[in-house]
Amino acid sequence: GCDSSLNLTSQKATGVVNGIFRSLRSIARARMHMKQFNSIHNPGSNTLQEASYKPLLKQVVEEICNPDRPDPVDIEHISSGLTDLLKTGFSMFMKMNRPHPGDHPLLIIFMVGGVTVSEVKMVKDLVATRKPGTQVIVLSSALLTPHSAIELLFATDRLQPDTDI
Length: 165
Prior knowledge:
By secondary structure, the protein is α/β, with parallel strands linked by helices. The chain has one domain. It is built from 5 helices and 6 strands. The chain has helices at 10-29, 56-64, 82-90, 117-130, 146-155; strands spanning 41-42, 52-53, 106-111, 115-116, 135-140, 143-144. Strands 1-2 form a two-stranded antiparallel sheet. A two-stranded parallel ribbon has the order 3-5. It comes from Colius striatus (Speckled mousebird).
């Protein structure tokens, strides 16, 4: 709401900062229903008092490439055909394991909203070290730069469709 710093008032600055925190809380609430991927913040422990940041994309890829292969909690297998549908239906009555996302030699990740170059490199490196031989394809709706990521988070109304077609 300000065209220059001369017109900036304390009330306008407070309104903008409150809007930023509302956006951040909304983003956090979007993951509240998840059991495994509900936070990107690790507060540390009693012995190690160092807080850390673990990106959501890194958490998902590590879960997919986990060699111990527990059943993923927040990642769901969706049946693609009649045969898969029958297998899924019978698995309710018999002890059949659901297919794990890491079973296939091709991993396709699509990031809605955008992905940065560093995130693509992180995915490539994680898959190469934890699951060698797996081909990974990262697709996205946009390639984000630091400026565009901040602009998408705080400067646009994400609930209104883009009508600049």
